[in-house]
Amino acid sequence: MRSQSALVAAAVLWGGVLAAQVAGRQEHVHHAPAQARTLTSPLDLSDADLAAGQTTYEARCAGCHGRAGTGGVAPAAGRPAPADLTRPDLRTHTDGEIYWVIANGIPASGMPAATGLSDTARWQLVAWVRNLGGVKVAVRATDGGASYVWDLPPGFPRPKVPADNPMTPAKVELGRYLFYDTRLSVDGTFSCGTCHEQRLAFTDGKARSKGVTGDITPRSAMALHNVAYAPVLTWANPTVRRLETQALVPMFGEDPVELGLSGLEDTMLGRLAAEPRYPAMFAAAFPGDPKPISLANVTRAIASFERTLLSGRSAYDLYRTSADPKALSPAAMRGEDLFFSEKTGCFRCHGGFNFTETNDFVGKGFLEIEFHNTGLYNLDGRGTYPTPNTGVHAITDAPGDMGRFKAPSLRNIALTAPYMHDGSIATLAEVITHYEAGGRTVTDGPHKGVGSASPLKSEFVKGFELTDQDRADLVAFLESLTDHAFISDPRFADPWPKPKGK
Ligand code: HEC
Ligand code: HEC
Ligand code: HEC
Questions:
Q1: Mean pLDDT: which of 102-111, 153-162, 274-283 is highest?
Q2: CB atoms within 10 A of CB 21
Q3: Mutation test of ligand 1: which of 64, 109, 128 has the most ligand atoms closer than 8 Å to its C-beta?
Q4: Ligand 3 atom index nearest CA of 346
Q5: Alpha carbon 265 to chain centroid distance?
Q6: What percent of the chain shows pLDDT beyond 90?
Q7: Which residues make Cβ contacts (< 8 Å) with residue 263, sequence separation at least 6?
Q8: Nearest CA among 227, 215, 249, 203 for reference residue 406
């Protein structure tokens, strides 16, 4: 059992480091009395606690402090603005102080006491506020997957599963039907699988996707292989942490409309209940639930299916695990050396078993969630990206977050063109040219700018020189990461009989 003291120790450590960093700046007001400092959380925090904290936060606090916690507008003239809960100096406050402020409010400032919440709910909120502030809250490794038999590719760790949604074969199978079910769209023409096609590693081959009503998504549909290991979802939203929650976005999102179900939750559930297969499937997936056909269960089943989309049987994996030198071409082997070299530095952000550093799994010590600016745009010499695709900045409004995106897994990358968050690079060779130049130069049009001169780009995107041979080798290596078994695996395919009697 994860000890409470570990959480407190982590908070103290961060507090200490940041207190040192902010020393010299104006001392921040501590609203809570001294004795509140030593209160500690009674929770053995799990993913479910964090998710509950987020839900309460979004219902009760986000209206003033913003979804990302970055603050808001003063409630009345002369009153202080809702505090930025992500400020570094807030990290010098203990969990106890934050708990006290939540429980008692700050009447003089218009910060209300959170009445009507259980003690557990308040501590869950504390954990979420910490999480918003970038403090890596120690979360107990939940064991929801312990009894599930994973079909893990060689060398893959066990995915973490939220305690409130354990894996079962019945749930995974139901999730597969739902993932490919067009009843999940307003007019019965779209499913998750419309934009996430198995043959393309669950992308759609487009720069940006078209939703059911013709809206164009601002960003490119993402591959879903190994999404079970993603600690943070979508291109650049640090607050989307659970597959269960993410699934609600395409279903109910209005900007852009993807599946168009906003306001139609009951209609959708009614349609599902009318499909002869579903009552028994939902009952098997959620035994003991008196009303198994519910929105929460739909998202649980879809998330469970997504967690089984494991891909790690490419030519490169075969070569690595069988030590059979014939499994990989000499060109790909030379490309591998380049990929892992200090010169290109690709491995810095795309390293590890899933070719992205941003991952989490059972037994992972310290969770590192990183977003990077690769110098793709520099509209004004100050590193600005075109709106609305300003990366993490779009969520936090923090100037330093401009252009920072999640480094995607490079597995199956040959299947997922066009590339980057907005599909603005057509081929792998051109992606390499972008990194060679240490950032992309756009010579004309509204996005004109010299990415390599961006003051915001990562120190690891510094540019380098390659020969034609090197470039071809690097592409050969990236192509060797394609897992052909994955894209033809019947367990991940559309289970609905075709043609569908509509
Ligand atoms: C009506 C708007 C409003 C709501 C709702 C609200 N707050 Fe606040 N909050 C404020 C204001 C204003 C301050 C700034 C007080 C100050 O600095 O004097 C504040 C301060 C805080 C602080 C202290 C920050 C610091 O600098 O010490 C925390 C923590 C906090 N709020 C958390 C929450 C949480 C969690 C919720 C939801 C349960 C919440 N707030 C709901 C307006 C609000
Ligand atoms: C209209 C096309 C479209 C549909 C339909 C769609 N998606 Fe997506 N999906 C996207 C786009 C675009 C993104 C990138 C989101 C972003 O960053 O803005 C995405 C991202 C994701 C991600 C994040 C992956 C990662 O690595 O972070 C998941 C998970 C996902 N979708 C699952 C689903 C599920 C489940 C459904 C059905 C309920 C669904 N999608 C329906 C287009 C779509
Ligand atoms: C500083 C971290 C970093 C380094 C170093 C880095 N990348 Fe990336 N990579 C990213 C990020 C972040 C993205 C997404 C950027 C965006 O969409 O704006 C990305 C995107 C990509 C993509 C497109 C992925 C997709 O799904 O569209 C490819 C291919 C790629 N990188 C290959 C490489 C190669 C090859 C190297 C070495 C030459 C490299 N990267 C070095 C962070 C990095």
A1: 274-283
A2: 13
A3: 64
A4: 37
A5: 24
A6: 65
A7: none
A8: 227
